[in-house]
Amino acid sequence: MSEPNRTTTSTPKDTATSGADAESVTPILQARGLVKRYGHVTAIDGADFDLMPGEVLAVIGDNGAGKSSLIKALTGALVPDRGEIRLNGEAIRFSGPQQAREHGIETVYQDLAVAASMDIASNMFLGRELRRTGPLGSVLRMLDKKRMREEAAAHMAELKIGLRSLTQTVDTLSGGQRQAVAVARAVAWARSVVVMDEPTAALGVKESGQVLDLIRQVRDRGLPVILISHNMPHVFEIADRIHVHRMGKREALIKPSDYSMAEVVAIMTGALTVGSDGGKATVADAEAARAAGLPTT
Ligand SMILES: Nc1ncnc2c1ncn2[C@@H]1O[C@H](COP(=O)(O)OP(=O)(O)OP(=O)(O)O)[C@@H](O)[C@H]1O
Ligand SMILES: [Mg+2]
């Protein structure tokens, strides 16, 4: 491990593409030149994206930078006007979120989309309910609640999520527990990618820690994670690489060990720029850099 680089003038050893060792590794999810316009507003302005196998990739950027739009394009919630998306090297065009899910991409949305009045096991199988075998299931459409509870319990235990009862309705859970249910559901069904939009935004310190632990577990199971977050300490704690989004496109793709938090914020706001190799950061806006407390020479 090289010493973290904490100045604006030195050059990090590794380039941005080294997240999973070499350029020969096929990205799990990749985009080139994505564009999405809403009338006069350009939400995505020629954005590139790369997610490598087994990594936690943080996506950060100012409000309105276009993070959500980019993620929507990658998860089928938005169809880009231009550009290309590849999943495991194959060009793909999602017509909707359901199609992205069928390709193994699961998204935990900021508003969670858990059904509050249903119990935990039912939430785990929401939209994918198991039916009873034989005519009870095929004709009468009866649910196999017992099997869903058993499978949900096994899955929760595997993720070390401690919940007293899976028959508890979700509206009786704490914010962190609800978040855990949403993450567990995504992990249960994801085969390629788990996407999380601000998973710790509404959580306390302890609950945030639990969600970060879950993200680590997901990565340890070999699934790459895209984490959209405004929380710089969380990003630095958990991300293998950081995609900095600015004005509709990728501004930089860097490793947190190569930059300080102040520098990353400065890249986000345009005070610093980084070469396309993710290397040397140079001062683009001296006044803004000084305001961020960074050296400008
Ligand atoms: N459906 C839409 N119609 C019109 N403009 C849109 C639409 N969706 C996004 N935009 C615009 O595109 C730009 C990028 O928005 P987006 O929501 O992707 O940003 P963001 O980085 O996710 O911001 P935040 O951090 O506030 O969530 C903004 O200027 C926004 O107003
Ligand atoms: Mg957003």
UniProtKB/TrEMBL annotation:
Keyword hit for Transmembrane helix: no
PROSITE patterns per UniProt: ABC_TRANSPORTER_1, ABC_TRANSPORTER_2
InterPro entries: AAA+_ATPase, ABC_carbohydrate_import_ATPase, ABC_transporter-like_ATP-bd, ABC_transporter-like_CS, P-loop_NTPase
Region spans: Disordered: 1-23
A Pfam match: ABC_tran
ABC transporter domain location: 29-272
Gene3D superfamilies: P-loop containing nucleotide triphosphate hydrolases
Keyword annotations of the record: ATP-binding, Nucleotide-binding
Name this protein carries in UniProt: Fructose import ATP-binding protein FrcA
GO molecular function: ATP binding; ATP hydrolysis activity
Comp. bias (Low complexity): 7-17
Keyword Nucleotide-binding tagged: yes
